[in-house]
């Protein structure tokens, strides 16, 4: 029998239904992997008992003939989702020790579907980062190594770096992520897994620690496209507790999966051909174009003329919303409270926020407060929102001539830990290909497509029309089948 931790979500689900193994055996195998991989620092909190309890229920349900859609499947939960009775920190000192008495809508949907939780996964603090180096609980390490790269540790991407590292290292078959400007897609590309950001509003944001409310979107990360479809079906759906939730039925994405793209048109945006980009990225992109042609698609050139303004617009809008969302962390109601001797209320505010937030979070709060301040609101924030509208309009016009758009996920493979921390702008540039779809609220997916010269994974991104997750998943499946990507990190941890 294949080692249980090498199985995909679909294989675990189907194998458990068929009686090939018990859910408890699966949970115990993944719990053992989690316990044996602490060097990766992928988990902030481990919850082996939660996984075992859900597994026992799954085995009892199988005996009773009352199986749920994901009975027997243990997963990782990004520590941005509130979990009832389990510490939820957003990887910040500000929320260290905070134990919610409520459950996020997305996590509750997954528990109702039969999943168990292996633990809470590490991330960039308050989801702010592209390398998982801003976590108060220490950086996550990618399970990958460069060829002949010695012991140099690589970034797993961010902010969902704990999720990406854990899946790639076989610590969980799938995990939740959140994507504000690429935080599902970029880490998925860095470690050779798949991840999809659905249309804004597909998954409820209720119970997710907020970063930028008009951009944040939950989505699944998993080993392959089919698993992403399965997970998304069980995460998505209307939620009256979230004012931005889409009141639409959840399609059966798994059943409709098809890699036959006959009659479909794939757009190639000329603005994504950046001068000086790693030639391995361009070579992978060209190979991806050939793969989609082989699947029956017609390739057309398109233009997204406002792409060059997406990154600066994003880094105005997102910090502005963050400065507002993070104002609630003041030491009064929950979380950290620093109360210096003889301090007044303002002193407590200042001490708590100075101690509770890390440097990157403070940087973004300061940027956001500045662009929202009197005299600068119209010059920066209003202008950025106008650019956002133009970017969305570019996509609308492009989708008049194509069904999906193909582009690289990130401008490079994984970089070394510490390589970009001294230069925030260089770090922000990692989101250059991911941010436009986020600003437009469109579904977008990263699929592993190649290894670079250093033996590290590279990902291709598929961007779809609003509500057309099926088109994105199908194009992703076409790439997955033709790329034949089956490389995995060697076990060194």
Automatic annotation (TrEMBL):
Supply the Gene3D superfamilies for this chain: Amidase signature (AS) domain
Any idea of its EC number?
A: 6.3.5.7
Amidase domain location: 26-473
What does the UniProt keyword field contain? ATP-binding, Ligase, Nucleotide-binding, Protein biosynthesis
According to UniProt, the reaction catalysed is: L-glutamyl-tRNA(Gln) + L-glutamine + ATP + H2O = L-glutaminyl-tRNA(Gln) + L-glutamate + ADP + phosphate + H(+)
| Record GO terms (molecular function) | ATP binding; glutaminyl-tRNA synthase (glutamine-hydrolyzing) activity
Its domain of life reads: Bacteria
Q: Name one GO biological process term.
A: translation
Active site, renumbered: 78, 159, 183
Note the SUPFAM superfamilies from the entry.
Answer: Amidase signature (AS) enzymes
The record's annotation in InterPro entries points to: Amidase, Amidase_CS, Amidase_dom, AS_sf, GatA
Q: Which GO CC annotations does the UniProt entry carry?
A: glutamyl-tRNA(Gln) amidotransferase complex
What is the protein's quaternary organization? Heterotrimer of A, B and C subunits.
Its function, per the record, reads: Allows the formation of correctly charged Gln-tRNA(Gln) through the transamidation of misacylated Glu-tRNA(Gln) in organisms which lack glutaminyl-tRNA synthetase. The reaction takes place in the presence of glutamine and ATP through an activated gamma-phospho-Glu-tRNA(Gln).
Family statement: Belongs to the amidase family. GatA subfamily.
Q: What is this protein called?
A: Glutamyl-tRNA(Gln) amidotransferase subunit A
Native species: Sphingopyxis macrogoltabida
């Amino acid at each position: 029998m294949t080692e249980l931790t090498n199985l995909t979500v679909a294989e675990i689900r189907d194998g458990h239904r068929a009686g090939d193994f018990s859910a408890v055996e699966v949970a115990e195998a993944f719990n053992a992997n989690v316990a044996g991989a602490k060097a990766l620092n992928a988990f902030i909190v481990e919850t082996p008992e939660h996984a075992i309890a859900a597994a026992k229920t799954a085995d009892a349900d199988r005996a009773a003939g009352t199986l749920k859609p994901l009975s027997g499947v243990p997963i990782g939960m990004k520590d941005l989702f509130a979990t009832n009775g389990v510490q939820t920190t957003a990887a910040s000192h500000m929320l260290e020790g905070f134990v919610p008495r409520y459950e996020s809508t997305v996590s509750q949907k997954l528990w109702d579907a039969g999943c168990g939780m292996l633990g809470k996964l590490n991330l960039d603090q308050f989801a702010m980062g592209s390398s998982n180096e801003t976590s108060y609980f220490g950086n996550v390490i990618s399970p990958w190594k460069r060829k002949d790269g010695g012991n140099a540790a690589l970034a797993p991407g961010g902010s969902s770096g704990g999720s990406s590292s854990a899946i790639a290292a076989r610590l969980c078959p799938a995990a939740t992520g959140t994507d504000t400007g690429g935080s599902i897609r970029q880490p998925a590309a860095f470690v050779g897994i798949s991840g999809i950001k659905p249309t804004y509003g597909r998954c409820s944001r209720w119970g997710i620690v907020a970063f930028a409310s008009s951009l944040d979107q939950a989505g699944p990360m998993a080993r392959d496209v089919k698993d992403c479809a399965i997970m998304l079906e069980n995460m998505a759906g209307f939620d009256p507790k979230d004012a931005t939730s889409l009141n639409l039925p959840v399609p059966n994405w798994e059943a409709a999966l098809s890699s036959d793209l006959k009659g479909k048109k794939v757009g190639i945006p000329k603005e994504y051909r950046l001068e000086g980009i790693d030639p391995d990225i361009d070579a992978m992109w060209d190979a991806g174009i050939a793969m989609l042609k082989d699947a029956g698609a017609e390739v057309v050139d398109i233009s997204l003329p406002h792409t060059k303004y997406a990154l600066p617009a994003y880094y105005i809008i997102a910090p502005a919303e963050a400065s507002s969302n993070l104002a609630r962390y003041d030491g009064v109601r929950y979380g950290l409270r620093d109360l210096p001797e003889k301090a007044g209320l303002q002193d407590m505010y200042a001490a708590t926020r100075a101690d509770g937030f890390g440097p990157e979070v403070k940087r973004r709060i300061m940027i956001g407060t500045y662009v929202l301040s009197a005299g600068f609101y119209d010059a920066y924030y209003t202008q950025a929102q106008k650019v956002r509208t133009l970017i969305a309009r570019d996509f609308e016009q492009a989708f008049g001539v194509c069904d999906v758009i193909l582009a690289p996920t990130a401008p490079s493979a994984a970089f070394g830990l510490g390589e970009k921390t001294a230069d925030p702008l260089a770090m922000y540039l990692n989101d250059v290909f991911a941010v436009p779809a986020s600003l437009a609220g469109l579904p977008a997916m990263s699929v592993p497509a190649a290894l670079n010269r250093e033996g590290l994974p590279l990902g291709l991104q598929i961007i779809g029309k609003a509500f057309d997750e099926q088109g994105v998943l199908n194009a992703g499946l076409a790439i997955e089948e033709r790329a034949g990507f089956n490389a995995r990190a060697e076990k060194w941890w």
